[in-house]
Design goal:
The protein is an alpha+beta fold and 387 residues long. The chain has 3 domains: 236 residues, no CATH class; 86 residues, Alpha-Beta Plaits; 57 residues, no CATH class. The chain is 34% helix and 34% strand. It has a 5-stranded mixed beta sheet with strand order 11-6-1-13-12. Strands 15-16-14-17 form a 4-stranded antiparallel beta sheet, with helices on one face. Helix 3 runs antiparallel to helix 4, helix 8 runs antiparallel to helix 9 and helix 10 packs across helix 11. It is elongated.
């Protein structure tokens, strides 16, 4: 499963948890899972709120006991001593490390001594570990994020008044595409920044995907005119792949047609992906043939040279074309003719179909002196009913 973080109004830890709960992570399951951490003195509450008419989940971490501040070394120890799986522990520690490194660079201290003060420390543990638990629960294998918007102004914290974005937030977002807004608030917190930077493999437009669910997590403030929400979209990635190829073409009306067969062989030898002869009518109504070749970009020049040297053409056109192809691979399968190579193709709905390779069928037909259509049908039957 793929998840797209649509951070149109920033991101924080509680917004991330809210969006995941809205996507279907059970609240009770999340609370029970967080109890595997040796952390007391808090309760997690979830409510449904509205932001600009959009329903969303709001998550509050309520402190119910006085809790001392913890430094980074203590948080590492706490997570490592938890009953969470090693994978959850490691991903949580990776996120915490980004915050600790940014804070340590700002305050000039070893990262092990960075303090996560009282309520903020509890918030960070719940938000970060909870997010990793949610990603695992939903089976999310890939995360992609939008560019990150930043607010402006000033914010008060443990160390006094700081500019927005907070220095730690900017430190964490190094190397990440961001853009400024006119929102006079902190809309990206250090925890939110660390979560998205650690989880996302890239930042940009929504990827090609089949959307299945959409979750909204609410921030605490009402921001006008923009709804203070984080939107997470989940679904399946397309099974087809995108790439760019080069199309080379020319029109010929004065060449011996016997040359075309030789030309096709030469073009394939030079890396052509496909070659077409297209009947056309040219000036003065003369019948002709359009030669159209699809090839990788790095084969363009040799394909052009081949056409200009082997044909009567005086010039060619070429341009890039985008294409999408189904995921496929060559595999060996046992058939009535023994083990042969077939194409394993993944359809857009995820189903798999097998197709015999033409050259394999041709070789068998010649060796056994039988019609190629019978060879083809026999192989297909063997693939449907494995031997």
């Amino acid at each position: 499963m793929i998840a797209y973080f649509d951070c149109f109004c920033g991101i924080s830890g509680d917004m991330t948890l809210g969006a995941f709960i809205d996507l279907g992570v059970p609240e009770n399951w999340l609370k029970d899972s967080l109890e595997k951490i040796p952390l007391s003195g808090f309760d997690l509450s979830v409510s449904t709120v509205s932001r600009n008419g959009i329903q969303a989940k709001s998550v509050d971490v309520r402190v119910i006991d006085d809790v001392k501040s913890r430094d980074y070394a203590e948080i590492i120890s706490m997570i490592e001593k938890s009953y969470l799986s090693p994978n959850i522990q490691q991903k949580s520690l990776d996120i915490f490390e980004r915050i600790a490194e940014a804070e340590a660079a700002i305050h000039g201290c070893p990262k092990e001594n960075v303090h996560f003060h009282e309520v903020g420390g509890i918030d960070a543990v719940v938000d970060i570990v909870g997010t990793v638990l949610c990603v695992d629960y939903l089976g999310i294998a890939r995360v992609i994020s939008s560019r990150i918007p930043l607010g402006r102004g000033f914010v008060s914290c443990q160390h006094g008044t700081l500019p927005v974005p907070a220095p730690a937030t900017l430190g964490i977002l190094k190397g990440v595409p961001v853009y400024g807004t006119q929102i006079p608030q902190e809309i990206v917190t250090p925890t939110g920044a660390a979560i998205v930077v650690a989880l996302a493999e890239s930042f940009g437009e929504i990827p090609d995907m089949i959307i299945e669910k959409i979750g909204y997590g609410a921030g605490k403030r009402e921001l006008k005119p923009i709804p203070n929400l984080l939107r997470i979209i989940t679904g399946k990635a397309f099974t087809h792949q995108k790439d760019t190829i080069t199309v080379v073409e020319t029109c010929i009306d004065d060449m011996n047609p016997e040359v075309f067969g030789f030309l096709m062989d030469r073009l394939f030898d030079h890396g052509a992906l496909d070659v077409y002869w297209i009947p056309i009518f040219m000036k003065k109504n003369r019948p002709g043939t359009m030669v159209q070749v699809l090839c990788p970009e790095d084969c363009r020049e040799i394909v052009i040279d081949c056409i200009l040297s082997e044909t009567t053409s005086l010039g060619v056109r070429y341009y890039d074309a985008k294409r999408r192809v189904l995921a496929r691979e060559s595999v060996l399968m046992e058939t009535a003719y023994g083990e042969i190579a077939v194409k394993r193709i993944i359809a857009p709905d995820g189903s798999i179909r097998m197709a015999p390779e033409y050259e394999v069928c041709r070789k068998i037909a010649l060796e056994k002196n039988m019609p190629i259509r019978i060879v083809y049908d026999t192989i297909l039957q063997s693939l449907r009913d494995p031997i």
